[in-house]
Specification:
single chain, mainly beta, Immunoglobulin-like, six-stranded antiparallel beta sheet, two-stranded antiparallel ribbon, Retaining alpha-galactosidase
């Protein structure tokens, strides 16, 4: 049931060329069974931030209620001494596109924090993979 994580029908995303490959990459690596799962932050009725690991890759998801908020996520759960690439998929209403999904990449390690803004009823998806 991977498609249930999408805010639209899969067809909307697949028809959009600029996020198609990124979305297919996430869907292809998203699994039902995880090697590890951690609740990083959250308050009932307000927000939740969860990290899940499959092999060496981590997937972080964050959502909020009707309030916008700033979230800071320490990456202390990553293996010490390794470099990772974080690909962040976030709501960006400034984009002139049907889905308004912005994409950023950052090099991170276990001493870094990711800071991001959640729009009202918004969310973020992050894939973190080791740099090879």
């Amino acid at each position: 049931m991977v498609a249930t994580m999408l805010g639209e029908t899969p067809r909307v995303f697949l028809d959009r060329g600029d996020v198609r490959e990124a979305l297919l990459s996430i869907l292809d690596t998203s699994k039902i069974l995880w090697d590890d799962a951690i609740v990083l932050d959250g308050e009932i009725g307000k927000n939740i931030v969860v990290a899940r690991r499959l092999g060496a890759d981590w997937f972080i998801g964050a959502i909020t209620n009707m309030d916008a908020m700033e979230i800071t996520t320490p990456l202390t759960f990553l293996e010490e001494g390794k470099k990772y690439q974080a690909t962040i998929y976030y709501d960006d209403p400034k984009l002139n596109a049907q889905t308004n999904v912005g994409i950023e990449t950052h090099t991170v390690n276990n001493k870094k924090e990711l800071k991001y803004s959640l729009l009202p009823s918004g969310g973020v998806a992050i894939k973190i993979e080791p740099v090879k």
